[in-house]
């Protein structure tokens, strides 16, 4: 009888998938220790992980490494803990667990319940941050030849989330190729502004974004502004794009403070700025254009 994980691989059972390739699958644990608790499996059903041939075991861990980077980028935590238990399901699997203290890895802890919408949001956010493997990035096969590039990449990944450079880079990645659809289509553009002095009044906002003084300013909650684009199938039945909008929304709400959407001007074209404060007080987010007739 196929294991429950094999039934997920075949599509017989649903899962909150975060990454997949020809031989491996990663998905959220539905009875997690913490939010973001992820399972990584080989698609080929093998009960005991150390019964896998050496090359398959190595490939599984390499895939898990990529997934762990996505979890770490999407879920606030100090480290991603790794565990292999092997007694719950007779199908080899690796636990990736966001952790801030050693006790977070205690499997005797009560399992938490996470709402379905939150699970979908987490899966989308992690999926958007799982890096492509070396072959997909076109990196040199010779590890020594790519050493300098790897060190640069690792230094960038280690940048503190609150720094302007890291925030700008993450926003560039998350908004790349996304289009907001109103009565027309407009690209999302990442933005970053110096910290305004004092409170962000309408006048201060207009000055910060370079809009005409006295322009009309309206505020809107971010989830309301993106509600059509973060629906399961998005605005055009494109679930992949919907997941990217969910990942963007989650990043803004987790990494920035007091995020709001500011609608500037009157129709037919309105400038929209989704902005929040970084840890250093700067404003960051994205802008787009709405067509409203």
TrEMBL record:
Residues 4-107 form the HIT domain. InterPro entries: Histidine_triad_HIT, HIT-like, HIT-like_sf, NucleaseA_inhib-like, NucleaseA_inhib-like_sf. GO terms for molecular function: catalytic activity. It holds the Pfam family HIT. The active site is at residue 93. Residues 157-166 have a biased composition (Low complexity). SUPFAM superfamilies: HIT-like, Nuclease A inhibitor (NuiA). One of its GO terms (biological process) is nucleotide metabolic process. A motif (Histidine triad motif) lies at residues 91-95. Residues 137-166 are annotated as: Disordered. This is Histidine triad (HIT) family protein.
